[in-house]
Amino acid sequence: MGFKPKAITEEVNISKVNPLVDFARLLGAIIALTLVIYFILGLAVDWVVPQLTPEQDIWIGDTLAPAVAPQLGGEVLEEDTRQLYLSELLEDLCHPGDLDETPLTLNLIDSEVVNAAALAGGQLFVTTAFLEEVESENELAFVLGHELGHLSARDGLRSLGRGIFVLLGSLVLNFGHEGSGPDVIGYTLNLNRLNYSRSQEYAADEYGLESVVGHYGHGANSLDFFERLAARKEAFPEGLVRASEYFQTHPLTENRIQHLDAIAREEGWSMTGETTPVPSGLACADFACNESPPDS
Q: Which tens digits make up the pLDDT trace of 35-45?
């Protein structure tokens, strides 16, 4: 008896609904699954980060720090006397008893991009272009205090953790990312751009303002940097190019300014007081600006 294959009818493997409906269902399922996985990973990261010891936090920060400067468009200045001034101000702004087991490292980056960022393990970054924009020590102190708030809350670790999980997931699924360990670190930093959630930014703002009030006795002029750049954005949008990176990662909105004013009223913090000038020559290497007139 011979085998006679049955003829395949035309309705086999043919959907009874419109192909667009099938595509929408598949796309919806993928999006829902991705959101669920991302939410679960977030919970996992929030559980893992507090388990890390200060030594592990420092190791992670030291390991990743060399990859940050290229992401901020420059190189770390190893010997510049401005670094000592910034480091001493940073130590003064740290809340008493906070980060006692984590040495703070101020990395001054020679870059035309206006930015400041905190990573992990006490690693904090400030660009020379940012120093050129600063007009008082009060506003400089608020930015440093804000970044200290991110370090204290380990926001950098949480952001990096999510980014690493997402990257590893894409590697497993072979979404086209290949590379060695350093490539993975660099891509992860680029993926995160050291961005934080709205709640993390609010908390860092409160930490920064409390730092400023604790250091100067008031919070006057601490938000001038943001208000000045925001006004420039409205008047001269093209003039914001250098500062756009900072606005991208630190969008201090009117709501956040109002929130800080409310916090100051609740805590009884004064928002008036004298302005502390920055040291002369802060915008120049080693505070040494060449102020000699050009040859006639």
A: 777 677 777 77
Do the Cβ atoms of 106 and 146 come closer than 8 Å?
no
Q: Residue 188: how many CB atoms within 10 A of its CB?
A: 21
CA 53 – CA 42 distance, rounded (Å): 19
Q: Which of 63, 249, 73, 28 is nearest to 164 (CA)?
A: 63
Quote the pTM value.
0.77
Q: Hey, what amino acid is at 52?
A: L
- Find, among 129, 150, 151, 141, the residue nearest to 89 by Cα: 141
Residue 126's DSSP bridge partners are 108, 116
Question: CA 107, CA 156: separation in Å to the nearest integer?
Answer: 16
End-to-end CA distance of the chain: 109
Tell me how far CA of residue 89 lies from CA of 94, 211, 279, in angstroms. Answer: 9, 11, 12
